[in-house]
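Example is below:
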Amino acid sequence: MVRRALAVLAWLVALAWGGHAWFRNASLQEFDEAHAHAWVLVGDSHADDVKWGGRPRFSGPAQDLFSSLKMVESLKSTATDSSKVQGVVLTFWPNKFSPLAERRLSGVAQEDNWGSMAFGRIAPLMTLRDLVRPEVPLRYRMRMAFHTLQFKTTFAWWDEQCEQDHVGESYSHGLSDGMRLHNWWDEARVSPGLFQAIVDEVTSQGWHLVLLENPLHPTYYDQVNAEALAAYETWMASFEAHPSGRVHWVPLGRENDDFTLFRDYHHLTCKGEAFVKEALDKELERICPGAEGTFGRE
């Protein structure tokens, strides 16, 4: 009886892993096709606020840094001599080091639907190596393995939509106590290592990494812990001196005088998206003049 149960279990595990292998190969095809472009966009919902035209975007709402790392690793693993990729644009902001970001990276189940959504996008890219890698806690790795049973595909997508409605002139939004009252920078344990891993993965391939910080509403800067923010900005600026010379920071966070750029304190309207596009296009053209795909269609 025990042998039969073990045999059935082994068969189910093999079947599940075979299904996962199929979806992983389908997902990698999306990354393979991305090599026809000069630039690839990776990030969270802030990437959704970047006018990117006909170029590939691997992003999702509240996408954590390990997920972004896996996107970059998958892009790198599918690179061939014919790849046209010149670089990766990564959307980034202080909350990537927030207490909430750290809780999500701990693997502890969240009260919202974040786990199912986030792991559903990253689990298709999982390899056996991911079960033992040290960048994230064991609980996170086990949840990622469990969510391979969603049998989904990670895909690139192209967003042509934007929103016209903006916040009012007197708009305000209260930040969490963790962001206001605590030095969240000093408390971050997992996020900094993951960010460094992304930098290493991109630059080791000889690609450029553009760190894009979208505008943030003044109500954010009025409340966020000043000590933590200063440490974050100093650290981010230090990557401009990366030995590769291929890391570029585009800090648009404080470009926030016009309230009509915002639909909430960290998401942008059509006007805000156009503002970011202009600044980003100039930076990409500066880095790789005339590179195919530098200027996306509207």
About this structure: Confidence is low (pLDDT under 50) at residues 293-298. The longest helix spans residues 2-34.
